[in-house]
Amino acid sequence: MVVNRRAVIAAALGHRFPGADVVVNRVLVYGSLTVLTGGIHFGLTWLFGAWFGGRDGEDPSAGPAAALATGALFNAMRLRLQRGVDRLLKVEGDPYRLADRLSRTRVDQGVRPVRLRQWRLGKH
Predict the structure, then answer these.
(1) What does each C-alpha distance from 43 to 67, 94, 103 come to in angstroms?
(2) Count of CB atoms within 10 A of residue 44's CB?
(3) pLDDT > 90? residue 42
(4) Out of 43, 81, 94, 95, which residue is the most buried by the measure of CB atoms under 10 Å away?
(5) Per-residue DSSP letters for 40-64?
């Protein structure tokens, strides 16, 4: 039996299964991040070994140097991938814009906004 992965993802997102969009988002981000991190580490290990390895092309410090360089790039890659996947899945990333949109939705539906009580030390 052949299963079309895109059809399964579209069906899961179309029926609004609770949490399915979060799972798909995380799988796309961290799956891509794993592939990118592995490729960059492999490429940098080969490059550092070729540059600093001398005639035989092997340098024992190439692996750790590549790991440090890949680790330095990790967070920037994760943030860029997260923004790209959020854009692809149309996820609102800005919490202020999301709160504004939610408050407008509640007002449009006729629900009065709730006033929050400010608590101060000693006064209730």
Answers:
(1) 11, 34, 48
(2) 19
(3) yes
(4) 81
(5) HHHHHHHHHHHHHSTTTT--TTHHH
